[in-house]
Model the fold of this input.
Amino acid sequence: MVCESGVVVSCLGQVEREDLIPQVADFLLQFEDVEWVVCAGLFDGNVVMSVRNVGYVKNAGDVVKRVINGWGLGGGHRTMAKAIFPQAEWKNRYGSLSVTAVRDVVLSLFLQEAV
Done:
């Protein structure tokens, strides 16, 4: 897990249940001084991201749409959103599916759009 400029990013690696990803995101949003949470995990051949925010910042659904930029699936609402990227395409684009690599890419993408 890493926190920068009020954005917390966590990558869980491979998960057996997809619903673990948004549950962790909801939990991390409770931390002090956190405005955004992006929790990612690998599930069923995809990189799945659950995005949460405190509600008085940019719209989470709009941010996710800008982050996916036409090559993944996603969308959402003001305070919560989801993005899905095929693992094969992620690997071609970013080179690695390691926990650290995914976390670092996600942090970079969301710092550009959310803050």
In short: Strands lie at 2-4, 7-14, 36-43, 46-53, 73-76, 80-86. DSSP finds four helices and six strands in the chain. The first helix runs from residue 20 to 28.
